[in-house]
Amino acid sequence: MAPTPPPDAAVAVAARTATPPEAPAAPAAGRLGELGLVVRLEVADSLRARWLAIYAIVLGGLVFTLFGFSLTESRILGFMGLSRLLVTYIQVCMAIVPIFVLVTTVRSVAGDRESGVLEYLLALPVGLGTWYGGRLLARFALILAPVLGAMALACGWAVLQEIPVPWGLFSAYAGLLVALCACFLGLALLLSSLARSVDVAQASAFLLWLVLVLFLDLVLLGVLIEEHVAPNTVVAIALANPLQVFRTAAMMLFDPQLVLLGPSAYVILDAFGRSGYLAWALAYPTLLGAVAALVGYLRFKRGDLV
Amino acid sequence: MSAPAIAIHQLGKQFSGTPVLSDLDLEVAPGERVALVGANGAGKTTLIRCLLGEYAHRGALRLGGLAPRQARREALGRVGFVPQIPPPLRMPAGALVRFAGGLGAARPAAIATIAERLGLDLAGVERRPFAKLSGGQQQKLLIALALGRPTDLLVLDEPAANLDPEGRRAFFEILSEQDPATTMVLASHRLDEIAALVSRVVELDGGRVVLDDRVDQRGTGSLRARVVLVRADEAAGRAFASWGLEAVDPRRYEGPVVNADRLRFLGLLARYAGLIEHLDLGPEDAP
Question: Containing domain of residue B262, as a range?
Answer without folding.
Answer: 222-283
